[in-house]
Design a protein that fits this description.
The protein is α+β, with helices and mostly antiparallel strands. A hairpin with a 6-residue loop joins strand 1 and strand 2. It is elongated and about 60 Å long. It has 2 helices and 11 strands. It has a single domain, classed as Lipid/polyisoprenoid-binding, YceI-like (Lipocalin, Beta Barrel), CATH 2.40.128.110. The strands form 2 sheets. Strands 1-3-4-5-6-7-8-11 form an 8-stranded antiparallel barrel.
Length: about 190
Amino acid sequence: MKRIFILFLVAVAAFAAAALADHYTTARSSLTITGTSTLHDWKIESSTINGEVVAPPISAWKDGITSVKVSIPVASIKADHDRMTRMMQEALKAKENPEIRYELTTASLQNATADTFNVKAHGKLTIAGVTRDVDLDIEGKRITPISYTLSGSTPIRMTDYGIKPPVTMMNTLKTGNDVNVAFHWVVETR
């Protein structure tokens, strides 16, 4: 009987902890990757960011965000030209690694008001099957009582993720190794 009572208390404590956190899922989003080439600057975009944020209300933030997991289907990333789209999806090894993934490991609230906040986030970014640590400065804004916009950007080097910068036109058009990844992610409570 004592063992059952202890298990009951553990279950209640776990439920209470989960109840204190809000669960947010994707409502709308955009991802933009920009870079350079020997001919011109380029941009590829996706309107698909899948994922979930589990976090306490900003007013109760003490230990930070409980969980953030994000995935972006590589097939959703498109350029203005089909050839560029195919080249980038090949460079990202879309067949073997159909998603770009991010998982938060730590987060620190920098400042907050009732409607805005900034977070220093550290996490694991996986691109083309290679995982690296990445730091992000994220700006959050409340847009409705149940939704927030999370925005940020980070520079990355393609070769850090085992990606060979695309080359075309008999090696006369070469993309630069450095790109910038920017996101605008709208999440809302369930």
